[in-house]
Amino acid sequence: MPTLIIQNGALSPPGTALEVLRNHGHSIRLVEVFNGHPLPGDLDDVDSIICCGGEQSARSDLDDPLIVAECELLAAAHEQGIPVLGLCLGAQLLARALGGTVARMDPGPEVGFVELALTPAGREDALYKGIPWWSRQFCWHEDEITTLPPGGRLLATGKDVTNQAFVVGTTSYGLQYHPEFGESALREHCERTDSFAESGGGSEALMRDLQAHGPDFLRHAQRFFESVALFLMPVDRINAGIPKDISH
User: Fold this and answer.
1) In Å, how far are 130, 149, 150, 210 from 166, measured between CA atoms?
2) pTM of the entire structure?
3) What is the pLDDT tens value at each position of the chain, 248 positions in all?
4) Is the distance from CB of 148 to CB of 154 less than 8 angstroms?
5) Domain map (residue ranges) of the chain
6) Fewest Cβ atoms closer than 10 Å to its Cβ: which of 69, 105, 208, 211?
7) Looking at the domain 3-237, which fold is it?
């Protein structure tokens, strides 16, 4: 069965996540909701879910039928034990779906390469094997998760945004930052000249930070999604013993 990837925005591609999962033998079903692709009506043929970022808001005070539908889908997946990974907006949707809260950041967006620290729980979590206790991760958001869902464990935190990564149970993870952004997506965001980019110091500063922190970020992202593929969403969870490629 496929891994369902929900792409919420044209500027938030699955990038490294898609590349690594494919390299580990995953069948992928990509749903571009920003292009009008419908969400699945049930989870009968879904093995795992990655919910990506986007320009929408997961705040409960906004009435968005698509956001409500995604929350219901993620809540159902969690209830059924289907592995879920939410990224940025996807993390906020997962938090809301499982009983957490999301609100607009004060005083403003968090943009660029932000230093995050793993909590004691994060240092022990299988998905963070090989990830430094302190690292620079790429953020691009104006909402934040203000309260974790009941039973949620904090895995990573930052100076301005506390809830940067969390897990509920053993198979539902949310990351406020963007490890899925590959080199092209990082460059595209750092070259932007809109108000979001200005809140991060402007394109020149963002491009300098990309040069300084980009290589480590990309290396850590590769390692993170390898752990996702091996521990959270292993192919042999459903397809035991089936090799990805056969060479002659």
Assistant:
1) 18, 9, 11, 26
2) 0.94
3) 899 999 999 999 999 999 999 999 999 999 999 999 999 999 999 999 999 999 999 998 888 999 999 999 999 999 999 999 999 999 999 999 999 999 999 999 999 999 999 999 999 999 999 999 999 999 999 999 999 999 999 999 999 999 999 999 999 999 999 999 999 999 999 999 999 999 999 999 999 999 999 999 999 999 999 999 999 999 875 544 333 333 33
4) yes
5) 3-237
6) 211
7) Rossmann fold (3.40.50)
Q: What is the dihedral angle through the alpha carbons of 167, 178, 8, 191, rounded to the nearest 10 degrees?
A: 170
Q: Say if residues 155 and 167 touch (Cβ distance below 8 Å).
A: yes
Joined together, the tokens standing for residue 32 give: 């571009």
Q: What is the 3-state secondary structure (H, E, C) of 152-213?
A: EEEEEEECCCCCCEEEECCCEEEECCCCCCCHHHHHHHHCCCCHHHHHCCCHHHHHHHHHHH
Catalytic residue IDs? 88, 178, 180
238/46 Cα distance (integer angstroms): 11
- Over the Cα atoms of the chain, what is R_g? 17
Which residues have a Cβ under 8 Å from the Cβ of 6 and sit 6 or more positions away?
A: 31, 33, 39, 49, 50, 51, 52, 70, 90
| Residue 129: other Cβ atoms inside 10 A | 14
